[in-house]
Amino acid sequence: MHFTPAKTPVFSVTLPELQLNFKEMGLPAYRAKQVMEWLYPKRAKSFGAMTNLPAALREQMEAAFGFEALELVRTVGSDDSTRKFLFKLEDGSLIESVLIPASPALYGEGSDRRTLCISSQVGCAYGCKFCASGLNGFSRNLHAGEIVGQFLRVEELSGERINNVVFMGMGEPLANFDNVMRAISILNAPWGVGLGARHMTLSTSGLAPQIRKLAEQPLQIRLAVSLHGATDAVRNQIMPVNRKYPLAELLEACDEYCSRKNQRITLEFILIDGINDSLEQAAALGQIACRLDAKVNCIPYNPVEGLDWKRPSLRRQDVFMDALQRTGADATIRREKGSDIAAACGQLRLQVSRDATGSEAE
Ligand code: SAH
Ligand code: SF4
Predict the structure, then answer these.
(1) Chain-centre distance of CA 126, in angstroms?
(2) What is the domain class of 9-66 according to CATH?
(3) CA–CA separation, 100 vs 84, rounded Å?
(4) Quick check: 268 and 299 in contact, CB under 8 A?
(5) 168 CB less than 6 Å from ligand 1?
(6) What is the rounded distance in angstroms from the CA atom of residue 205 to the CA atom of residue 228?
(7) CATH 3.20.20.70 boundaries in the chain
(8) pLDDT tens per residue across span 259-273
């Protein structure tokens, strides 16, 4: 279950840590800054490229630190739509990252927002009944370098600048708390990627104690909660995590997050035919959203091969949205093009591991 890389992943290391490390070696602090300049603004691929460092130091670094090996196995999608990248990690594990281009439907005309959906674990232990990521169970946590590495690799492969990150790929980010927080701090740091905290959203299936822990963190990252059921009865049916942290406990943790951070959270609600799309659910969801002053993001379910769940008809979706909005809740439904690939994280990996091919990029 635990994976230890051969060398310390260089994209897991923070500037203060490297400065301390160099100090112990008797090196001046500015050397650590030089390394970070090579890694982030200049995107160096090896220590050999860091030409303003003494050769002996480059060799020492080479022996101690490893660059991330995120090998591209497959891409799906095109330049102007959502693109999904399947990566093979150092130990052969497969993960997915999804690049979502500016979407006028979501962000308005002229938006240059490009979002990367990042994975935080290999597989997922939470086994939500509708989700492809949990189907093969949990393998391991990603280390921070593998999380930061997804950002750097996708920018490199696409030639595009990413200005928004969502932890909505494979895995439960709050179950890999320390590595995810470390990655977020590196993505945010001025010496690192320099991405604003408000441009990062963490999505959780509802780990109440970890939501409280997140509320104590200094960074103003955004929180999205995968609700998918507005009563314990419905949530228990599709999300086993609800038996551990029932709605009352989850909503209390959300309350605490909102008040501590002075922030609005987003409630995600995938619409599954005959499961959570009744008028009663719409009313209960509206009540929760109003209590939390949360935004609600409804997403028609993306069918997963091998699972029986279906997306409701357009008419049923409209009736649900209408009832929800009548409660006064701030709710939208996401039906934009490209969501088919984006919202179904875990599916590409599942497909590749099922047919056991996937050695060439498409
Ligand atoms: N584990 C975290 C983050 C990853 S999942 C969480 O559950 O929040 C990101 C989002 O995609 C979640 O809201 C999840 O419920 C949703 N999702 C999973 N499978 C889906 C599918 N087949 N169709 C639509 N959304 C899906
Ligand atoms: Fe895990 Fe999230 Fe999928 Fe649930 S929805 S199985 S928590 S990745």
Answers:
(1) 15
(2) mainly alpha
(3) 9
(4) yes
(5) yes
(6) 9
(7) 71-357
(8) 999 999 999 999 999
- d(CA 9, CA 69) in angstroms, rounded, equals 10
| 89 Cα–ligand 1 center, Å | 22
Q: Where in the chain is the domain with CATH 1.10.150.530?
A: 9-66
Measured CA to CA, the distance from residue 96 to residue 147 in angstroms comes to 11
Instruction: Give the model's pLDDT for residue 136.
Output: 80
pTM value is 0.93
Task: Provide Rg for the chain, Cα atoms.
Answer: 21
User: Does the C-beta of 296 come closer than 6 Å to ligand 1?
Assistant: no
CA angle, corner 181, sides to 148 and 48, nearest 5?
Answer: 35
Between the alpha carbon of residue 45 and those of residues 49, 193, 344, the distances in Å are 7, 15, 31
Ligand 1 within 6 A of CB of 242: no
CA–CA dist 127, 241 (Å, integer): 8
For 79-108, b where at least 16 C-beta lie within 10 A, e where not — what string?
Answer: eebbbbbbbbbbeebbbbbbbbbbbeeeee
C-alpha of residue 272 to centroid of ligand 2, in Å: 15
Q: Is 96 an annotated catalytic residue?
A: yes
CATH 3.20.20.70 fits 71-357, yes or no: yes
Q: Which entry of 128, 254, 298, 345 is annotated as an active-site residue?
A: 345
Tell me the pLDDT tens digit for each residue of 77-136: 866 678 999 999 999 999 999 998 875 555 555 567 899 999 999 999 999 999 988 788
CA dist 43 and 133 (Å) reads 31
Q: Is 345 a catalytic residue?
A: yes
Closest CA to 69 of 165, 150, 169, 170: 150
